């Protein structure tokens, strides 16, 4: 069973779906239940022997502040419904292994009753999967203490997999993990949801040119709910880029960009006249498209950033300004290592973005940077899960792990 909280985005669902697909390929016949609140559902396709349980969607608007996305009722009512559904699902499905994405206690502690039920049976191994950068360290330390997240790891989890590298971001040190939790950490390398395939006929290969000798630029904003400003800046920067280096551009809005924003981008693209710029919601094979491009512009979400690194395409990351510091931190750390260029969202002017894109299009920009990142996370995650499954369930109910004095109770 896989739990993924992703009320208004694609990142967590993308990563969880990729893991499910890899498990299915490695261990045929494994039954998997994906529990998620993403409105996108099976956006990334169905996996053999997997089904999907949809929770009512909620949206994080700030640390500890959540709202229902669709239901016109109070958050407390939606939270209680989600909590009951999770507990019922884990008791009914009786998984050999529960993989929890990102939130060890679930959104605002909603997963705790399910974890308590699993602990009493003792039949389920429990694993937490974390992208390396969650938020500013002081925010994570404060919220995890208040909400009981560290308590949940200490009590219920057999292993914690970090989808990153310790030398880039030391999760245990930055977030203040106690020794008992830090001992369960395993860094897997970056989890690339999909490696770029061989470019198809007519798509060209890495560094290929579009019709008329134009360089190819692709711009993407994940799910797109807050990606309008980035794509508008790309369109505003294109004339300056094209004047120095003739180019074409494909802008991907994602499925969650409001209709008005998408229509405005389409109008602006038409107004560029001779400069070929297209706006689409999504494409079938994004990794292949990125690999065939000469440069990319993207927000700094985990999956977009890592898939760009896997493609080897020179890229400009424009991090989301909030509500968390996650994307700004990732863009800064990756830029410091020479893996990407970055433009701060507060400095997102057409001239600034155009200069960064032209830097990506300069001769030699595609050369592999020194200290290339470890992108073997997907295989490493599957190996960890297989090892736990092969070990079998714990013998009988697991004892409650002792907690340090003064630890706050679960909500």
Question: Can you walk me through this structure?
Answer:
Helix 3 (112-121) links the parallel strand 6 (97-101) and strand 7 (125-131). Helix 10 packs across helix 11. The chain is α/β, with parallel strands linked by helices and 411 residues long. The protein starts with a strand and ends in a 20-residue tail after the last helix. The chain contains 14 helices and 15 strands. The radius of gyration is 22 Å and the shape is globular. The strands form three sheets. A seven-stranded parallel β-sheet has the order 3-2-1-6-7-8-9, with helices on one face. The chain has two domains: 2-191 and 377-391, Glycogen Phosphorylase B (Rossmann fold, 3-Layer(aba) Sandwich); 211-360, Rossmann fold. The chain is 38% helix and 16% strand.
